[in-house]
UniProtKB/TrEMBL annotation:
Name of the protein in question: DUF308 domain-containing protein
PANTHER family in UniProt: PROTEIN HDED
Keywords: Membrane, Transmembrane, Transmembrane helix
Gene source species: Archangium lansingense
Keyword Cell membrane belongs to the record: no
Cited InterPro entries: Acid_resist_chaperone_HdeD, DUF308_memb
High-level lineage: Bacteria, Pseudomonadati, Myxococcota, Myxococcia, Myxococcales
Length: 171
């Protein structure tokens, strides 16, 4: 499994535009499915005579999820632009907060958090500065790197377990 995920990550990084579009379509599909489950859940927890409460919250949340999911599926190009802006904003804001907090508190290992903050702010700024063209590569690279690192992590974990098992057999 680790090897397959690693290979899939390499393929995803080799086709970042396709990976970006497939990610938006997948995300839109998952929102539609999650929204349907949320609506079903709303009716399952509804109490007779109750007005408002969790029923309305789950029902409206499900309708919103389905609506956003359908918009992403109908216009994946526009969805990709929106998700890229959200991603750039997230990187910038989280890096800014992490960097400021690390400098202000100076806890043990604060330098690593400051470095993370600087890299994250820079990444957010690069994605935003190259917008809208960055929408064609940014999401695909993030998804590809995640799949690749997950595959490597699974293989490293499997090798570590195998080494432990071999030591136990020989002990």
């Amino acid at each position: 499994m680790g090897l397959l995920l690693t290979l899939l990550g390499v393929v995803a990084l080799g086709a970042v535009v396709l990976t970006s579009l497939v990610s938006v379509i997948f995300y839109g599909s998952m929102l539609v499915v999650a929204g349907a489950f949320e609506i079903v859940h709303a009716f399952r927890i509804r109490k007779k005579g109750e007005k408002g409460g969790p029923f309305v919250m789950f029902l409206l949340g499900g309708v919103l999820s389905i609506g956003v999911g359908l918009m992403l599926l109908a216009r994946p190009d526009a969805g990709l632009l929106a998700l890229t802006l959200l991603m750039a904003g997230y990187f910038f804001a989280s890096g800014l907060f992490r960097g400021i907090t690390s400098v202000a508190d100076r806890y043990e290992g604060w330098g690593w958090d400051l470095a993370y903050g600087i890299v994250s702010v820079a990444l957010g700024a690069i994605i935003f500065a190259q917008f809208p063209s960055s929408s064609m590569w940014a999401l695909g690279i993030v998804v590809g790197v995640e799949i690749l690192s997950r595959g490597i992590s699974i293989m490293a974990g499997a090798l570590a377990v195998r080494g432990v098992l071999r030591r136990q057999v020989h002990a």
